[in-house]
Specification:
Keywords: NAD, Oxidoreductase
Enzyme class: oxidoreductase
Number of strands: 13
Protein name: 2-hydroxyacid dehydrogenase
Number of domains: 2
CATH class of the largest domain: Alpha Beta
Structural class: alpha/beta
Strand content: 5-15%
Family: Belongs to the D-isomer specific 2-hydroxyacid dehydrogenase family.
CATH architecture of the largest domain: 3-Layer(aba) Sandwich
Strand order of the largest sheet: 8-7-6-9-10-11-12
Order of helices and strands: EHEEHEHEHHEHEHEHEHEHEHEHEH
Shape: globular
EC number: 1.1.1.28
Number of helices: 13
Oligomer: single chain
Radius of gyration: 21 Å
Mean pLDDT: 94
């Protein structure tokens, strides 16, 4: 059987091909799955997609009509998938429920330290042989307060690094993490965390309840000299509200690896095009803002785990097994109809 994989990065392709060798053929495409590219999947029972694929009803219907029966998404997040429609169409959907939390946590800290110590500005200067220190003043992290919104596996890994810096630890989550408590984390309400933290880092999934978790009110509640880092999902932050606060000269730094309107932009080369996203364009003009292109997960360790889990999901499907990563099981449509 040939598996068709959409949105495959150049570094990811050899890992996918090697992992599927001896099991199934795989054809890797660098184009992302959208309504326009969905017809390419015709005749493929199994496809694999990236986190920026569009898996709404207008894409799922032509996939099902073309013979697709299983979608293996190569990410943990699945807010891009209409699971109800997938179930009605009889599509099996699986994701990667776990990969190295250190990849994202370490990158979140990379963003935090880069904006704190003005690394991008400094690197740009030294390339021009300008070795002045004006405007590069940063702050020690030791003794300051890190606020962690979401203390699951990634949030815990981020907290361990903060503890290593000697920071005070505040957490916000539905259920406290025992490991974070052992590190000295104090769980508080979101408002108190935002008001008391020098560094705020987001590590929660995107769902209706967390959309714009950091909105206008939350941004105003933060300290003027705080650092905000988002390496989770772009929709957690109201970007327009963030731009308004930045225009007031607020925040020591903002590090964003994700953006709420990143689909159609991130993972693509837009350097020769006019990008008509005014909010993103304005965001990029602030000297205290660093935007990267959803690369926090992108380590060889994490990508290998993602690929291995994807192969396992496909093998479970072909063997008729329901693995732990399945979001919509085979036969969901039939069971729904029967009930």
């Amino acid at each position: 059987m040939e598996i068709l994989a959409f949105g495959v990065q150049a570094d990811e392709k050899p890992l996918l091909e090697s992992a599927f060798a001896g099991h199934h053929d795989i054809r890797c495409l660098d184009v992302f799955l959208t309504e326009d590219t969905a017809p390419i999947a015709a005749g493929h029972e199994i496809i694999s997609t990236s986190v920026n694929a569009d898996l709404g009803a207008r894409v799922l219907r032509p996939l099902a009509a073309g013979g697709t029966r299983m979608i293996a998404q190569r990410s943990t997040g699945f807010n891009n998938i209409d699971l109800d429609v997938a179930g009605r169409l009889g599509l099996t959907v699986a994701r990667v429920s776990y990969y190295s939390p250190y990849s994202v946590a370490e990158f979140a800290w990379t963003l935090a330290m880069a904006v704190n110590r003005r690394v991008v500005r400094a690197a740009g200067r030294t390339r021009d042989f300008d070795f002045r220190l004006d405007g590069l003043l940063g702050r020690d992290m030791r003794g300051r307060t890190a606020g962690v919104l979401g203390t699951g596996k990634i949030g815990e890994a981020f907290t361990r690094i903060a503890h290593g810096f000697g920071m005070n630890l505040l957490g916000w989550d539905v259920v406290p993490n025992a490991a974070c408590l052992e590190l000295g984390m104090k769980y508080v309400g979101k408002d108190q965390l935002l008001a008391d933290s020098d560094l705020v880092s987001l590590h929660v999934p995107l769902m209706p309840a967390t959309h714009h978790l950091i909105g206008a009110d939350e941004l105003r509640a933060m300290r003027d000299d705080a650092i905000l880092v988002n390496s989770s999902r772009g929709g957690l932050v109201d970007t327009a509200a963030l731009v308004r606060e930045l225009r007031q000269g607020r925040f020591t730094g903002v590090g964003l690896d994700v953006y709420e309107a990143e689909a159609g932009l991130f993972f693509l080369d837009k350097s020769l095009e006019v990008v008509d996203d005014d909010t993103l364009a304005r965001l990029m003009t602030f000297p205290n803002v660093l935007v990267t292109s959803h690369q926090a997960y992108y380590t060889v360790d994490a990508v290998r785990q993602i690929v291995e889990a994807t192969v396992g999901n496909v093998l479970d499907y072909t063997a008729g097994r329901r693995g732990e990563n399945v979001l919509v099981p085979a036969g969901a449509e039939a069971r729904s109809s029967a009930s």
